[in-house]
Structure to design on (886 residues):
């Protein structure tokens, strides 16, 4: 139980960062997502209690925006761009290749919590399509044969 | 001692992903080793625009353009150009194998036809240093309005310029400002929309990354004209570098007294706060964006009343996108008359007065030169795709160019001579949108493209209006069916009926324009729909269910690369001899197609 | 940093703009220093430093210094070519610190050739 006490301390710190104001609820959730790589239920409850908003509203936001996840994400988040330019240059084949290599479906996380796989709408690097990011690292002009080699760097 | 050479190294998102920062480090090290650091300055700039050939280094004042610069090229580049003064041919842009390399940036057709207003400082300044912007006449327009223009005069200037919103809708900017100035409210707010959600578009990201102060200056001028004290910048979560540069630029502007209390020693005060999006396409829609800044889910509301009259916290709110704001300082400085002399200002053709100025497009997809281009309104699609873009990659045949994002359309070959402006794009069933221009070739299936956009919109519909939410779902099922070779004769009619319903019954622009990708492809590429439904065939060779992969006996060299990469080991053959694909085991993943270096894998 | 007023902003701009004439490729004249292996061996680097220092000392903003390869007459290095818009290029040879300073002041800024150092006026035919 010691862990969860610590966790909630961090939550209070995040809430205070935004002066506990309701209009910064989205920002608080973003910070929680960055801290824990997902939005744990206890944390959402703590926020709802502290800034006095209904838990339902917190969940409305948490499920509306794509930047939030209610389940833990992997240490490395693989985001395969599915913008239009990436689509016409074979983005789907790249996504399938990652899915085969990691043995998880889109939206899934590997059993060891190391990798999550997602498609994203557009990363805005269309000149380099098709594009993939793994956390902060961006890979452009890739094709399905390079997927295994890219993943190797993170294993 | 002044530097004799400036090496402008692109550190936009694209070039950084191609390791331009490592190139910078190597360059600085090499310069230091040769004791040239007092003569030569290395500057990291924002996006240069020619993303397809990064990392890019521009050497000024010579104007020499180097592309695809790698760390291992640095010693030779420094030796040749910096020490001996001989531009280094190996790294110059070469349009084709037979052609001579082109040394100067402005002689490269990709740059030659462009006209830079919103991107005026791209690749020329360090975006993280406010003084570099000031040196390029930055904040001069703000000083001008504060010292010599009334708010009414500023609005008049913007109206006369003919500037229309660059975010998609093309609403006259000056008119919006006037409405907001005249609106009644205790407080008024200003918003910069940097939630550039259209897939295939990255103009705003690039402007912010290469020149954040041009946006901030535009906002300050707008705030002065309309009478606003507080502004917000809403940046989408996928753009971390743009967010960082905005925050840094705001800190510097505040330190120099260019935003905050008593700007430039006058009585005008105004400040800006940054909000980070949380990932929702619909938040690019003004009213959804406003909801999101208020800490609510980004659901649009009906626009019976414009945000300019009643927006954020129910107060009059002036909202324009990044590119629009970046145009403002130039209009003020060079005058509305100059601005409106550019473009297609033919009032007889449009009640809104044509399209003036320039537009930034992201030219991507199957063209040779991909990147960001700024061109005068009225330029022909053909000039953009062939002269600037260098034509279709790999010698393939042009099929369509998609403009306007998910609400736009695919324009066929016969429209290549269409002059590009707000009204003409609308007249052919597409739209300007925020400026994505995705070129497609003969291997792109138009039914699949329609399905792609409908799938996109289906995922992004906020769900408030039933015709949009359910209509998109039904459309997606029909399109999936057609692409799987299970289409029915009545499907085309069903798609058209659904489209009509969605246009009529949705509150916001997302729903109202959502059927466009379908209507538009039906209008210009109906034969492809028919081929899928009647012949169970995908003429472009895209739709997985309708294609098979084979190996061309003439082209195969037996290199075995395909077999090495095949994830299900269904390719066999002796070394140096023809390989074959066991069709029954093939999962059609396309890896062999990607792996083959001889174009020997056929997808049909 | 003291907050700027409108006048301060203009003063600051003037101060930092000098650096940007080079960046933007705008200049009244170009002094092209020939820096092939022979030019460097003959002492061009020292000449260049002298030139850049003079430009700085006099606060000259519209003269650009460029470098190029060997001019082909190695025995007369260090050499430089002065390019002024609308005038034929002028080549100077056997340069020293003192000579380059005179060329800058008398020819580039004053408009009068420093005849005793001139090697040639006009350029070789190309093609």
């Amino acid at each position: 139980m010691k862990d969860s006490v610590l966790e909630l301390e961090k939550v209070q710190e995040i809430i205070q960062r935004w002066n506990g104001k309701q209009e910064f609820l989205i920002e608080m959730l973003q910070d929680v997502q960055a801290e824990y790589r997902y939005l744990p239920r206890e944390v959402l409850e703590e926020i709802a209690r502290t800034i006095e908003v209904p838990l339902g509203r917190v969940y409305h936001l948490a499920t509306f925006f794509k930047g939030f996840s209610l389940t833990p994400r992997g240490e490395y988040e693989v985001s395969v761009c599915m913008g239009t330019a990436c689509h016409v240059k074979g983005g789907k084949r790249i996504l399938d290749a990652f899915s085969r290599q990691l043995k998880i479906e889109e939206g899934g996380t590997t059993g060891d919590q190391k990798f999550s796989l997602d498609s994203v709408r557009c990363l805005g690097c269309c000149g380099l399509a098709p594009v993939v990011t793994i956390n902060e690292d961006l890979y452009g002009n890739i094709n399905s044969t390079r997927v295994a080699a890219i993943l190797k760097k993170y294993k | 001692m002044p530097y004799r050479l400036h090496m402008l190294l692109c550190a936009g998102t694209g070039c950084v992903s191609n390791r331009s920062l490592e190139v910078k480090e190597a360059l600085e090290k090499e310069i230091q080793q040769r004791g040239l650091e007092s003569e030569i300055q290395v500057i990291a700039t924002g996006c240069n625009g020619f993303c397809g050939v990064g990392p890019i280094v521009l050497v000024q004042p010579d104007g020499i353009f180097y592309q695809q610069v790698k760390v291992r090229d640095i010693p030779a580049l420094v030796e040749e150009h910096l020490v001996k003064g001989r531009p280094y041919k190996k790294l110059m842009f070469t349009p084709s194998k037979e052609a001579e390399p082109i040394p100067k940036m402005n002689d490269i057709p990709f740059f030659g036809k462009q006209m830079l207003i919103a991107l005026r400082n791209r690749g020329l300044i360090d975006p993280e240093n406010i003084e570099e912007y000031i040196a390029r006449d930055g904040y001069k327009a703000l000083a001008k309005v504060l010292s010599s223009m009334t708010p009414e005069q500023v609005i008049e200037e913007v109206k006369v310029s003919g500037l229309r919103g660059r975010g998609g809708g093309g609403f006259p900017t000056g008119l919006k400002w006037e409405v907001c100035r005249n609106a009644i409210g205790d407080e008024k707010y200003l918003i910069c929309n940097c939630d550039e959600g259209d897939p295939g578009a990255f103009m705003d990201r690039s402007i912010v990354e290469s020149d954040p102060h041009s946006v901030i200056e535009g906002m300050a001028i707008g705030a002065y004209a309309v009478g606003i004290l507080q502004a917000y910048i809403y940046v989408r979560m996928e753009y971390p570098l743009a967010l960082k540069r905005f925050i840094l630029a705001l800190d510097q502007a505040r330190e120099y007294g260019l935003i905050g209390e008593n700007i430039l020693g006058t009585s005008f005060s105004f400040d800006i706060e940054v909000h980070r999006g949380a990932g929702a396409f619909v938040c690019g829609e003004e009213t959804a964006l406003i909801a999101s800044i208020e800490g609510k889910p980004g659901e649009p509301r009906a626009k019976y009343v414009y945000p300019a009259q009643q927006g954020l916290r129910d107060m009059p709110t002036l909202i324009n996108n990044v590119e629009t704001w970046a145009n403002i300082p130039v209009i003020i400085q060079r005058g509305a008359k100059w601005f409106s002399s550019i473009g297609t200002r033919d009032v007889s053709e449009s009640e809104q007065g044509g399209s003036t100025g320039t537009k930034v497009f992201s030219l991507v997809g199957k063209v040779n030169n991909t990147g960001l281009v700024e061109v005068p309104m009225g330029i022909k699609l053909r000039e953009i795709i062939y002269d600037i873009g260098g034509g279709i990659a790999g010698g393939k045949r042009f099929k369509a160019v998609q403009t306007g994002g998910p609400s736009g359309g695919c324009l066929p070959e016969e429209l290549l001579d269409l002059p590009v402006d707000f009204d003409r794009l609308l007249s052919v069933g597409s739209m300007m949108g925020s400026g994505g221009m995705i070129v497609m070739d003969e291997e792109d299936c138009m039914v699949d493209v329609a399905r792609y956009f409908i799938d996109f919109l289906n995922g992004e519909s906020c769900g408030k209006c039933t015709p949009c939410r359910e209509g998109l779902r039904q459309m997606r099922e029909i399109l999936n069916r057609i692409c799987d070779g299970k289409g029915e004769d009545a499907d085309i009619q069903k798609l058209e009926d659904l489209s009509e319903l969605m246009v009529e019954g949705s509150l916001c622009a997302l729903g109202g324009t959502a059927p466009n990708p379908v209507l538009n492809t039906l209008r210009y590429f109906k034969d492809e729909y028919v081929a899928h439904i009647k012949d169970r065939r995908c003429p472009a060779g895209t739709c997985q269910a309708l294609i098979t992969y084979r190996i061309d006996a003439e082209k195969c060299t037996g290199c075995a690369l395909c077999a090495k990469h095949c994830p299900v080991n269904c390719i066999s053959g002796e070394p140096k001899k023809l390989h074959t694909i066991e069709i029954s085991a093939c999962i059609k993943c396309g890896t062999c197609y990607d792996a083959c270096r001889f174009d020997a894998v056929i997808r049909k | 940093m003291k907050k700027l007023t409108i006048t301060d902003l203009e003063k600051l701009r003037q101060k930092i703009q000098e650096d940007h004439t080079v960046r933007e490729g705008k200049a009244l004249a170009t002094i092209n220093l020939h820096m092939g292996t022979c030019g460097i061996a003959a002492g061009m680097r020292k000449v260049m430093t002298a030139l850049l220092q003079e430009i700085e000392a006099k606060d000259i903003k519209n003269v650009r210094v460029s470098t190029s390869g060997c001019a082909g007459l190695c025995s007369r290095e260090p050499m430089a070519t002065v390019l002024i818009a609308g005038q034929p290029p002028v080549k100077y040879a056997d340069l020293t610190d003192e000579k380059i300073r005179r060329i800058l002041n008398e020819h580039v800024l004053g408009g009068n050739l420093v005849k005793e150092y001139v090697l040639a006026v006009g350029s070789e035919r190309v093609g």
Q: What stands out?
A: Chain B has a mean pLDDT of 92. The CA atoms of residues 528 and 539 of chain B lie 7 Å apart. Chain B is about 40% helix and 15% strand. Chain B has five domains: 5-112, 130-340, 358-441, 446-534, 548-603.
